[in-house]
């Protein structure tokens, strides 16, 4: 249901952007203006940059999306927290060397990058989805600013997550506020350089981890990095890099020069952290199902793979969760409370209801949260889907998942994922030949990433040193 909604929504959100091929240039030059009916197209037309409006919204945003995919959320948004309230947005490089979005209205122009006065800059949309500002006169094409350094909710191949210890700067994904509102939301995805793992936090609390990045033995003698709690069949070539200043994580673009099988998706699909904390790979398979996490550490259970522990009220237990159901409460057993604070996202409503022992159901709306409270609130599910749809607290009757001793090692991915992916067996079989090839090819690349200890270089240089595709420089 929600997936269908998400799909329907995404079909519409970018419909106008991808069908508007007004320009076929990839570069904005000083003095040029890109208004809401024009776009930039990357050199091979993979990505489009332009203004878009979510469905039924008059707000507009500057974003980048895949050009030819129907099911596509924007992979980057320039002004997620400063929407333009009409379609007056114009992207331009003004005469004082600033890349900015001008628009009608009381607010000032939105400045994306300000170069030193007199610098001749241009902004280019690359085929990697990176939007870069370069100095036009410099022969080296030095990158002064790039959208990859300002991630929104999507990790494209070639982007990194991580931290620069010297500058304190970090690269993290932040979810949308809701299904339709791209404003910064409750969930973040970050790289934990100490444990070498990925973390999803909700308002700072760790909800999910990927498990540690580990070297696994391939089908032959090859070795490759995987996480304990991420399906290895997604076939990402994860890499982690440590330099003197930076520690980071990425999955690279694969070098197309070495590939001649046309059907194979050589560029792995991007990851999107959605407003419920789930991570989707290309809108299809889940990388992480974070909305199943309620703070019970159920290691060993396939459903709750990666869920973390956090303090729970005594009235709750690990058999309970909220489930979207049509229904109502028995007369006089529950009272409705409206908290119309617009800063509350769906996950805030859920957390508040969970922590309130009288709360038996919630729904989120555009104004905040509705809660159904009562000591003896009795939910009655409709036999036909006629009543209101709400997230009702359900006490599941299934036996509790096994709780292995805390010292037990986490399950090895290939076995723990076996049952979950039984139905996809045919896919696995069909890709095995290809996967072996990929692993052989991949491991030689990933393990071949040698670096000199202590050299003050940045992650991205190392990540893509050995790859034929550089996400930052324009190809010569
Ligand atoms: C955008 O600019 C083009 C060409 O200058 C113009 O024809 C078009 O009407 C403009 N669109 C908007 C929405 O202002
Ligand atoms: C958009 O508005 C139309 C007409 O008011 C309505 O039927 C539709 O449900 C709305 N869509 C969303 C996603 O709110
Ligand atoms: C996109 O939509 C068009 C028409 O709605 C359809 O013909 C095409 O196959 C779709 N493409 C993808 C990749 O789904
Ligand atoms: C720069 O642009 C501003 C506003 O667009 C204008 O007032 C100013 O005269 C311009 N300066 C130069 C040197 O062109
Ligand atoms: C950059 O190049 C432009 C035209 O090629 C020239 O007019 C300008 O003076 C140059 N600027 C610098 C700082 O070299
Ligand atoms: C990343 O930076 C933001 C602000 O720049 C900060 O709030 C956040 O705590 C940082 N995260 C980490 C993991 O350092
Ligand atoms: C990546 O992490 C592993 C540990 O999981 C570590 O042994 C390896 O040195 C790291 N690679 C780089 C390039 O830092
Ligand atoms: C609630 O828990 C049950 C039992 O594990 C599970 O099947 C169901 O998918 C969960 N529902 C939600 C919405 O989390
Ligand atoms: C929210 O609730 C407060 C107090 O109940 C009320 O004054 C305010 O008008 C409400 N705002 C909206 C948008 O409903
Ligand atoms: C709770 O509600 C049920 C059904 O409405 C009722 O049978 C029961 O007596 C109630 N219990 C208390 C303690 O009120």
TrEMBL record:
GO cellular component: plasma membrane
Keyword presence, ATP-binding: yes
Highest taxon above the source species: Eukaryota
Listed GO MF terms: ATP binding; carbohydrate binding; protein serine kinase activity; protein serine/threonine kinase activity
Membrane-spanning parts: 426-449
Apple domain ranges (all copies): 315-395
Residues annotated as domain Bulb-type lectin: 25-146
Primary site of residence: membrane
UniProt keywords, alphabetically: ATP-binding, Cell membrane, Disulfide bond, Glycoprotein, Kinase, Lectin, Membrane, Nucleotide-binding, Phosphoprotein, Receptor, Serine/threonine-protein kinase, Signal, Transferase, Transmembrane, Transmembrane helix
Documented EC number(s): 2.7.11.1
Keyword Nucleotidyltransferase: no
Enzyme class per UniProt: transferase
Swiss-Prot/TrEMBL catalytic activity: L-seryl-[protein] + ATP = O-phospho-L-seryl-[protein] + ADP + H(+); L-threonyl-[protein] + ATP = O-phospho-L-threonyl-[protein] + ADP + H(+)
Compartments it resides in: Cell membrane
Gene3D superfamilies in alphabetical order: Bulb-type lectin domain
InterPro entries according to UniProt: Bulb-type_lectin_dom, Bulb-type_lectin_dom_sf, Pan_app
Topology relative to the membrane: Single-pass type I membrane protein
Signal peptide coordinates: 1-24
Protein name: non-specific serine/threonine protein kinase
Organism: Handroanthus impetiginosus
Lineage: Eukaryota, Viridiplantae, Streptophyta, Embryophyta, Tracheophyta
């Amino acid at each position: 249901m929600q997936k269908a909604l998400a799909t329907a929504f995404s079909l519409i959100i970018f419909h106008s952007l991808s069908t508007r091929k007004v320009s076929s240039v990839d570069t904005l030059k000083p003095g040029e203006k890109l208004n809401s009916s024009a776009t930039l197209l990357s050199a091979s037309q993979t990505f489009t940059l332009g203004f878009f409006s979510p469905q039924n919204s008059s707000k507009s945003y500057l974003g980048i999306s895949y050009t030819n995919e129907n099911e596509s959320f924007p992979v980057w948004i320039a002004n997620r927290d400063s929407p333009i309230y009409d379609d007056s947005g114009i992207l331009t490089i003004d005469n004082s060397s600033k890349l900015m979005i001008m628009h009608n209205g009381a607010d000032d122009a939105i400045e994306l990058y300000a170069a030193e006065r007199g610098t001749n800059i241009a902004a280019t949309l690359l085929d990697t989805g990176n939007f870069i500002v370069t100095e036009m006169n410099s022969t080296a094409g030095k990158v002064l600013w790039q959208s990859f350094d300002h991630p929104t909710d999507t990790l494209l191949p070639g982007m990194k997550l991580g931290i620069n210890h010297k500058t304190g700067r970090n690269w993290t994904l932040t979810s949308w506020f809701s299904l339709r509102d791209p404003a910064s939301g409750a969930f973040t995805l970050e790289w934990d350089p100490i444990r070498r793992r990925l973390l999803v936090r909700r308002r700072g609390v760790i909800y999910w981890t990927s498990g540690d990045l580990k070297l696994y033995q391939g089908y032959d003698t090859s070795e490759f990095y995987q996480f304990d709690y991420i399906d290895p069949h997604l076939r990402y070539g994860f890499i982690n890099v440590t330099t003197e200043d930076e520690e980071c994580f990425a999955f690279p673009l694969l070098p197309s020069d070495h590939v001649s099988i046309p059907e194979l998706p050589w560029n792995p699909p991007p990851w999107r952290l959605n407003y419920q904390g789930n991570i989707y790979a290309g809108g299809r398979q889940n990388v992480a199902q974070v909305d199943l996490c309620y703070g019970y550490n159920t290691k060993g259970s396939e459903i709750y793979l990666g869920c973390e522990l956090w303090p729970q009220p005594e009235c709750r237990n690990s058999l309970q969760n909220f489930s979207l159901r049509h229904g109502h409460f028995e007369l006089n057993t529950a009272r409705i409370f409206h908290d119309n604070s617009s800063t509350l996202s769906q996950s805030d409503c859920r957390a508040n209801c969970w922590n309130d022992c009288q709360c038996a159901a919630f729904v989120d709306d555009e104004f905040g949260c509705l809660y159904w409270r009562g000591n003896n609130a009795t939910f009655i599910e409709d036999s036909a889907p006629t009543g209101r749809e709400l997230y009702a607290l359900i006490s599941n009757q299934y036996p509790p998942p096994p709780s292995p001793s805390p010292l037990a090692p986490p399950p090895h991915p290939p076995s723990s994922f076996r049952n979950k992916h039984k139905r996809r067996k045919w896919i696995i079989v069909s890709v095995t030949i290809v996967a072996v090839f990929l692993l052989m090819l991949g491991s030689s690349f990933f393990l071949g990433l040698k670096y000199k200890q202590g050299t003050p270089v940045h992650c991205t240089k190392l990540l893509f040193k050995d790859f034929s595709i550089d996400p930052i420089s324009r190809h010569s």
